[in-house]
Amino acid sequence: MPKITAAKTIVTSPGRNFVTLKIETEDGVTGIGDATLNGRELAVESYLSEHVIPCLIGRESHQIEDIWQYLYRGAYWRRGPVTMSAIAAVDMALWDIKGKIAGLPVYQLLGGACRTGVMVYGHANGETIDETLAAARDYQALGYKAIRLQTGVPGMAGTYGVSKDKLFYEPADSDLPKETVWSSEKYMRVVPELFGRAREALGWDVHLLHDIHHRLTPIEAGRLGKDLEPYRPFWMEDPTPAENQAAFRLIRQHTTTPIAVGEIFSSIWDCKQLIEEQLVDYIRATVVHAGGLTHLKKIAHLAELYGVRTGCHGATDLSPVAMAAALHFDLSIPNFGVQEYMRHTAETDAVFPHAYSFADGMLHPGDAPGLGVEIDEAAAARHPYRRAYLPVARREDGSMHDW
Ligand code: GCO
Ligand code: MG
To answer: In this structure, which CATH number among 3.20.20.120, 3.40.50.1970, 3.40.50.300, 3.60.21.10 belongs to the domain 109-369?
Structure first.
């Protein structure tokens, strides 16, 4: 069995920051994993280079589960986004290596394809409802079967989910956190209007999604979900912060609008109650922030028992390496729901050449051995790290809210 002989991190910023782990075996086979944690990139980089890489050298690269257990149990300090993103990067790189050695795409190692492709959704957004609907029509013209709708809230500059670029979403865009203003009352008035107008303009054959971005209280989320019911949204995402999983019971008592949650979760323990009590319909944990394919499979298997489907996070701040890994995963599990797909810039795609491709609203990971994505280190070196923070949100009286 090929031993790990070298590993290093590569930090690059082709339009935004990405941290990538590259592992090499004694046979010269290399594998890569995404370790990007938006706004906290160098914490994961240092966790890997200072604490994880020295423990990898000499281990058998094929022993993916054992290495996962070694890094998780062996740290003593369990869970959390920094630790779990670092473990995820190792895990992805090892699946990549195993696939390359086997001569098989990773989805074949995970059990083979359960579907012909992966339905994805893109972000249609604009400062006004008209702009959002125009963007949604553009996504429809590109073949998307599922579209997320976000719009600016009148009187509130810098609403989350509204971006300058139409195919990319980049909220981490300042050297220190930007301050934005929030009013739940104003927001809750605009979203039902957006969805009403969207059904008139776009029809009923397209799935429409919406992200609340942890902004509401449970009872407010129940109200918004109820107001949206006539427009049959595919889901409302992150209705309320999820540290208190039991809080979702209150939302469930008031609305049949499906709920998606979990893009900031780092382990199965963050969603165990949500899944077991069927308090959510879609689990959005990702391969990069929730411990890699090895751990995400366990979350998906638990979810399968309770009729919960997956809807993995796939914003622009997850690198093409994480996107490729997500697609192999999505193709191979029975309870897949939808995959978020925010495109990367041309600079990012040039740094990470990849085999996955988009057609008719679906992505396919391709059939290259391993994950099917590489890193061009010379191109990466041309884009040095730049500190960049996500914004923060304050209520109109100046008190802190959840961004
Ligand atoms: C989404 C997310 C993102 C996050 C971003 C933070 O649903 O895509 O909410 O847009 O804000 O990934 O790093
Ligand atoms: Mg979100």
So the answer is: 3.20.20.120
